[in-house]
Amino acid sequence: MISKGFGKKLDALRPNHLTVSNKPSAIPKKAESPAAGTDQSHLAPVNANLTPEARIELYRTMVRIRRFEERSLRAYQAKKIGGFLHLYIGQEAVAVGCCSLMGKNDHVITAYRDHGHAIAVGMDMKPLMAEVYGKVTGSSKGKGGSMHYFDPSRNFWGGHGIVGGQIPLGVGLAYGVKYKGLKGAAMAFMGDGAVNQGAVHESYNLAALWDLPVVFVIENNGYSMGTSQERSSAGFGLAERGRAYGMAWGTCNGHDLYDVRATMDKFLKLAHDESKPSIVEIDTYRYRGHSVADPDKTYRTRDEIEDYQKTKDPITLFQKALLNEKILTDALIEQIDAAARQEADQATEFAEASPFPTVEDLQKDVYWEIDNPGQNTSQGRIFFDR
Amino acid sequence: MPVISYREAIRHALSEEIERDPNVVVMGEEVAQFNGAYKVTEGMLAKYGPKRVVDTPISEAGFIGMGVGASMLGVRPVMELMFWSFYSVAFDQILNNAANLRYMSGGQINVPIVIRGPANGGTNVGATHSHTPENVLANHPGVKVVVPATPYDAKGLLKTAIRDNDPVMFLENTILYGDKGEVPTEEYLIPLGKADVKRQGTDLTIVTYGRSVIHSLKAAEVLEKEHGRSVEIVDLRTIRPLDIDTVLASVAKTHRVLIVEEQKPFASVGSQLAYMIQREAFDELDGPIHRLTTIDSPAIYSPPVEAEQLPNPERVIKAVLEALA
């Protein structure tokens, strides 16, 4: 794909590099340990301790994301969806792995390729599909669209359209957690295209300066839109820029859900236990163009995409792992897939059947005060249509 | 009633709100250890400590965005921009994020942040430091915009702004920081969107806000004494929400209007006002709506010329006499 190997020989010079070992010397033996009969020694505790049901849920969530994305692509091609549609297909293990580690006071914010994160934090497919359809039953009442999914009740703060613009907000979430004296963290996701934005670097500096519990997660899918990393980013690896800010950093294999969880667990602990920020670069790959409007013919080859699909697909790889662990069966794989397709179809039917918002809805949800008329204190005119 | 400065009035508002609400945090460049670039926050670090009064690096996009993010979790940051002119480097955080988050989330989020600092020319600091962005800010549904002219208004409006659950842009003025006025000891709040008739008159209404209120009041004295003209002065105090009713009531009384603002003329706050007045009080007008603005070039450095570029009492007098001619 691209050469991300700059500086690989320089490990000794990387004082902030957290070496993530996923091979602990002793796996705690727990009665509820899933795969009590299978060898778990290759797994980090955070994975080894997962029940079979939890592993199946992780697999199921990845499949659900993929089927949702495929279904929304069909809707887009049928001209049911306006604007942009940035699909997450190929990157599922990243959002699912990271979000599966969230505790009560952990928060997530991401960019516009946000469908995977929304499903991974537990949002229902129906309002998500309705949102891209621009329907009033959508998660943002049809006011946000594909790039702007939110669910604060699940600590999911969007869904942001401007590259890198969400990262200062992520630092603010960490600031808020720390200010309130809670043990929690923010995961601030961005793509590899965001790492050269000034707001991102300002965020790194603030987080490191003030020891804020944030993990900056770079989902490196190799291309910032159509520009490869080597044509856009100078210096060593993307996470390694954390060195300049005295921040811990690390990398992991985003095709391997267990590796994502093992790595992120380590960095989240750093945030939770020591209130230290970090940068994690997760290698991943998107099979579709930057957005559905991207003809995807100028900057990479079909062979490259097919190679990833054949050898590094995160769902296939995790499926194999769970088959080896004798947790999944062919019948269960079929059942999960059929259920995910049905769920996506039902979400589409829901979206199709739902009404659009009205012109009267335009000026709702602009000001808290207008939406809470009993509690307003302002006077005067606030909208200026006359 | 105690007489205090505009600067002290703002400090009192910040202090009272910090004491009232544990979620209020004052944050910005040089606000703590340095005691404030314009001494607005002088003594607050010593009194309230580093958790409540926080020095930031020179990093407006970063710290304003951070404040927006923290406000989503219920922190109530009052962010100081050393100059509002620096809003341009935080534009995305203010006007994409703070302004739009509630909308794009379908009403799930609110952003109770205040961004405050001086926004004015007249201090010979050149074009980059002399912006008056109230029109730009008010062009974005989702934010509120406040421009106080007096110590009394500054305190009462800032306290309201801090308690407001929407993002409030609070534009002060370096030249007004030393101005003094009566401010009561007991607590008071001034609602946003309520104009104040600063002077009663019969011949012409000046609609204005910010430092231009002070210029207009001086001009009105001269106009009365030397020209026998009676001018009414409506101080908007907040730009969005806008108390257009008070403006229209005054127009119905005087039938003549001059808008005075420290804005560049093109698409200014005054442009919007002129539209609304003609649309809603056309039959009340005995003549065209006049407007006095900053002369339409980038802010000049040269001190004597900058004084002429901005509205000043002499220019206001001239404009009133033209409007009444």
Molecular structure report:
- The complex is a heterodimer of chains A (386) and B (325).
- Chain A is an alpha/beta fold and 386 residues long.
- Chain A has a single domain, classed as Thiamin diphosphate (ThDP)-binding fold, Pyr/PP domains (Rossmann fold, 3-Layer(aba) Sandwich), CATH 3.40.50.970.
- Chain A has 13 helices and 7 strands.
- Chain A has a 5-stranded parallel sheet with strand order 1-2-3-7-6, with helices on both faces. A two-stranded antiparallel sheet of chain A has the order 4-5.
- In chain A, helix 7 links the parallel strand 2 and strand 3.
- The N terminus of chain A is likely disordered.
- Chain B has a 7-stranded mixed sheet, sandwiched between helices.
- Chain B is 38% helix and 17% strand.
- Chain B contains 11 helices and 14 strands.
- Chain B has 2 domains: 180 residues, Rossmann fold, CATH 3.40.50.970; 129 residues, Rossmann fold (3-Layer(aba) Sandwich), CATH 3.40.50.920.
- Chain B is globular, with a radius of gyration of 19 Å.
- Chain B starts with a strand and ends with a helix.
- With 325 residues, chain B is α/β, with parallel strands linked by helices.
- The chains are: A alpha/beta (386), B alpha/beta (325).
- Chains A and B meet through helix 6, helix 7 and helix 13 of A and helix 3, helix 4 and helix 9 of B.
